[in-house]
Specification:
Blueprint lengths: L6 E4 L16 H12 L8 H6 L6 H13 L3 E8 L5 E8 L6 H10 L30 H7 L1 H4 L7 H16 L4 H9 L10 H11 L15 E4 L6 E2 L10 H5 L14 H19 L1
Parallel strand pairs: 1-3
Antiparallel strand pairs: 2-3, 2-4, 4-5
Helix pairs in contact: 1-3, 5-7, 7-9
Length: 286
């Protein structure tokens, strides 16, 4: 088991177990996928541990198999911010028995919740509804509903369907600036002329323009709580950059190992350098 909070984490929305869960994978990858699937959440998922706890494959083979499982949609590596103060990062390997698409993993990294639940190889489900909705069944926007409700609050501002459609963009701007529907109704119906409103549509348009609420500063963007890593090199990347969980360099095989450190001087060479420095120091003093 890994340290508390680290290690394997099962992805949500799994399909039930089936004898054909990993039939689409090569034998080595299917074997390791079955092994990982049986591990409990929190189990160590590093290459060294996985190689030590099964007798068939070494570390290089396990590393290659993990990359293949990532490309097949079964595995992704994350850095996740945890804790009440959100200052501690943990490293987790999310494993899905059901093969997932890059789009599913991208949605999961953004929301932390299961997406469509479809397999990466499954075609999108056909819509049971017609692409076109009859006008009488088309759902109305909150702005349209808020305008239509003005007549219920005060009959002097009863608007027709055509009036609501014409004024809908202005009302939508009110709601987009954070105005609740109740406040929207209260502001537009307050202080109406006692002798009635001659043209409710024109009167409402003038109030929508003249009493438009101010734009509010957008709230600060919350810091990311999950960062996706390349399965092979562990480099943090944006989800759209990782195809099959691998960065471009690892997919193309152009990722080079770090250059070897320069050769160290032998003890004899070090003594020779020290003797020359001492001789130059004595010559300078004399």
């Amino acid at each position: 088991m890994a340290s508390p909070g680290y290690g394997k984490k099962t992805a949500p929305g799994e399909l039930p177990h089936s004898p054909t869960d990993f039939a689409h994978l090569p034998p080595r990858e299917a074997y390791l996928a079955s092994l990982i699937d049986r591990l409990p959440d929190g189990a160590s998922m590093d290459v060294k541990t996985l190689a030590a706890h099964q007798p068939h494959y070494g570390q290089m083979a396990v590393r290659t198999a993990l990359n293949s499982l990532s490309a097949a949609g079964h595995l992704r590596r994350f850095r996740e911010r945890v804790g009440d103060d959100r200052t501690r990062w943990v490293l987790r390997t999310h494993f899905s028995r059901t093969s997932r698409s890059d789009a599913w993993w991208a949605e999961f990294i953004a929301t932390g919740e299961s997406g469509t639940g479809e397999s990466a190889d499954d075609p999108p489900a056909a819509s049971t509804k017609s692409a076109t909705v009859p006008p009488k069944e088309r759902p109305r926007s909150p702005a349209y509903v808020a305008l239509a409700d003005l007549g219920l609050a005060d009959p002097r501002l009863a608007l027709s369907a055509a009036d609501c459609e014409a004024l809908e963009p202005l009302a939508a701007e009110w709601l987009a600036r954070g105005t609740p529907p109740a406040l929207f109704t209260a502001v537009l119906t307050a202080g109406l002329p006692p002798d009635g409103v001659h043209s409710p549509a024109a009167f409402t348009r003038r109030r929508l323009l003249h009493k438009m609420p101010p734009e509010r500063t957008a709230p600060a963007v919350a810091p990311a709580t999950r960062i996706l890593e390349c399965t092979a090199c562990r480099t943090p990347c944006r989800p759209q950059v990782l195809l099959g969980g691998l960065c471009r360099a690892c997919r193309s095989g152009t990722r080079h190992a770090a250059p070897p450190p320069p050769d160290r001087l032998s003890p004899a060479a070090v003594r020779a350098h020290a003797d020359r420095i001492r001789a130059l120091t004595k010559a300078t003093r004399s």
